[in-house]
C-alpha cells in the first residue's frame, strides 16, 4: 500500500470511529421526560375546544385532553397560545412539543409534520344565518364566506375554483366569530360546533350548519422525526378512547359522542 492510500484509509477509519463514538442525540420524548414538562400548542380562542373561563383559566375539550395527557404522564403542562396559522410552525421551530388544537389530518400537513392517531373528530361545514335560503353549494355562489386563515376550510374553499366562492379571511377563529356575531359576515366556514356557538353569543344572529364540507379526524401534531413520542402518544390515545375518557371530554363540550368507529 502506498503512502497516499494508507492516509486515505486512516482518514476513513477516523471518520467512522468518530461517528460511532459521538454522543447520541436525545430525542424529544427524552427531552420532555427529563424536563418533567410538556409544552402543548392550543388555541384558546375557539370555543368549545379551547377558551378561557370566567376566572381566565384555560378550558375546553382540547384543553382537558392536554391536561389529562400531562397528568397521566406526570408532567407539568405549559400551554403555548396559538392560532390556526401558527400551530405547525410552533412545533417545527421547537416552541411547542406537540399540537392539541383541532388539528385535522390532511395530506398537505402530513408532508411537514407527523400525526398521531385520531383522538377526536370535527365536522367541517359552511354555516350561515338561519334565515338565509342556503341548502347546497350553488346557493353560496357570490356570497362572502368568512374563514380563519391557514385552516383546512381556507385551503378547501380556495381550491374550489369552479364554485365561484367569495372568501373573506380573518387571522383567527376569534375574529372570524366576532365578524359573524357583529353582522360583518353572514356565512362562515368552520366546525359545526363553532357555528352553533354564534347564536349563544348573539341570539339575534343565530347561525346553523348549511353545507357539509367534510368530516375530519383530529390528531395531535409532532415535528417530523420523533417516532418514539408519536408511539407513546398513540398508546395513550388508544387507552383513553377505550376507557371512555376522551369521549366523555368530547361529549361534555360538544354535546355529542365521538364516532362509534373511533371509540372502538
Topology of helices and strands:
Blueprint: H1 3-21, H2 28-35, E1 37-42, E2 51-52, E3 58-59, H3 61-73, E4 76-81, H4 87-92, E5 98-99, H5 107-110, E6 113-129, E7 144-148, H6 152-158, E8 166-170, H7 173-182, E9 187-191, H8 192-201, E10 207-223, H9 227-242, H10 245-254, H11 260-263
Parallel strand pairs: 1-4, 1-5, 7-8
Antiparallel strand pairs: 2-3, 6-9, 6-10
Structure description:
With 264 residues, the chain is α/β, with parallel strands linked by helices. The chain has 2 domains: 136 residues, D-Maltodextrin-Binding Protein, domain 2 (3-Layer(aba) Sandwich), CATH 3.40.190.10; 93 residues, 3-Layer(aba) Sandwich (D-Maltodextrin-Binding Protein, domain 2). The protein is 41% helix and 25% strand. The chain has 11 helices and 10 strands. It has a 3-stranded parallel sheet. The longest helix is centred in the N-terminal third of the chain and has 19 residues. The termini are far apart. The N terminus is likely disordered.
